[in-house]
From TrEMBL:
Protein name: Uncharacterized protein
Length: 43
């Protein structure tokens, strides 16, 4: 099954390992920004 934004949660719940690269590709920039802000505020 192809992973899409509509079924990504279902794929995570099914423990589909191919979901991780999808999430990184789709949301990598957002995750990076959130992590940098969190780390910066905790220093």
């Amino acid at each position: 099954m192809k992973i899409t934004e509509d079924n990504v949660v279902e794929q995570i719940m099914n423990r589909n390992e191919k979901t991780i690269p999808f999430i990184i590709h789709q949301y990598g920039g957002l995750l990076t920004a959130i992590i940098k802000r969190y780390v910066h505020n905790n220093q």
